[in-house]
Specification:
Blueprint lengths: L1 H28 L4 H6 L5 H11 L5 H13 L13 H36 L4 H15 L2 H15 L15 H35 L2 H8 L4 H12 L1 H25 L5 H10 L3 H29 L7
Length: about 325
């Protein structure tokens, strides 16, 4: 198990290094002069030169990349041109909104999808199966920002159960904070739950057709007992794959959802940095998101090994 984990960690580390090269090249090298882009076409040459010096753009691309990479490794993500504060401080402030939101949404999507997929697979071809599959098809087809606006219209405007946006801060208490994140989390979770439920159903149906399931049924187990004791665990591998990918989708979707609900999270920070041409923030945030996705991929690989012992011997 340790050897398997080490190999996966080395592979993902190389992926992270390659991603850093691509991100640095796309943002700082290929477009030309980042300082001129940030200040606009009609900027004063003296102001451009001063900004280049402030951002450390006077050295060679290789030296700048190594400085940037070394700073990232030590927690120095640079200084925001717009906010005039270290990017690390901005990330620390916004992380306590985006991370609970992603965890909340992932918990909701899993809690909805696994029972729905299991229920549909256990009643394949019946009214329950058709109902679940129809609902999941609707969930996949409808974008999450439309769900978000519909939730605001019904639960905030009409029923007045939740606020239409904003975040009171965790210092206001756990319940107000979770209440403010509920509608955004539901808007993020529903499309992902639809995808996960369909994957769960397909994986269970395929597993139920295996010989060991028929042998278990022949020994007297009911269909439900065979699913719970044997089929469910073996159907989890494709489900774990989708769960890992959903983290990336939740981060990408949060950029839109956080703007719909005016949440001060990482997604809104990225959107503001792009509109304000704050390339220092954009570069650091994209790298952090890539790191988060790669870390989740590594954890999913470890979960594979825990579910399927055959992977530990490779």
């Amino acid at each position: 198990m340790l050897r398997y984990a080490f190999r996966r960690l080395l592979s993902l580390g190389l992926s992270l290094l390659a991603a850093s090269v691509v991100i640095f090249a796309v943002i700082e090298v290929i477009p030309g002069d980042p300082a001129a882009y940030m200040l606009g076409l009609n900027a004063d040459p003296a102001a451009v030169a001063a900004l280049r010096d402030e951002l450390g753009l006077t050295g060679s691309p290789l030296a700048r990349y190594l400085d940037w990479l070394g700073g990232m490794l030590t927690g120095d993500f640079g200084r925001s041109y717009t906010y005039r504060v270290p990017v690390a401080d901005l990330v620390a402030q916004r992380l306590w909104v985006s991370l609970p939101l992603a965890a909340y949404a992932l918990t909701l999507s899993t809690a909805i999808a696994l029972p729905a997929g299991l229920w549909a697979a256990a009643r394949r071809g019946g009214p329950v199966d058709f109902g679940v599959m129809g609902a999941t098809q609707l969930g996949i087809a409808v974008p999450n920002f439309w769900f978000a606006m519909l939730l605001v219209l019904v639960f905030a405007v009409k029923l007045n159960w939740f606020s239409a946006g904003g975040f009171p801060g965790w210092e206001a208490g756990l319940v107000p904070g979770l209440k403010a994140l509920t509608l955004p989390a539901v808007a993020l979770a529903l499309p992902q739950a639809a995808i996960l439920a369909r994957v769960m159903r397909s994986a269970l149906i395929e597993t139920l057709g295996q010989d060991y399931i028929r042998s278990a049924r022949a020994k007297g187990l009911t269909r439900g007992q065979a699913i719970r004791r044997h089929a469910f665990r073996n159907a989890l591998i494709p489900v774990l794959t989708i769960l890992g990918l959903q983290f990336s989708f939740l981060i990408a979707g949060a950029i839109i959802i956080e703007n719909v609900f005016f949440l001060p999270g990482l997604g809104r920070l990225i959107f503001q940095a792009i509109t304000q041409r704050d390339l220092v923030v954009v570069e650091s945030m994209v790298m952090l998101l890539v790191f988060a996705v790669i870390l989740v991929t590594f954890l999913v690989d470890l979960a594979y090994a825990a579910v399927d012992p055959r992977l530990r011997r490779r």
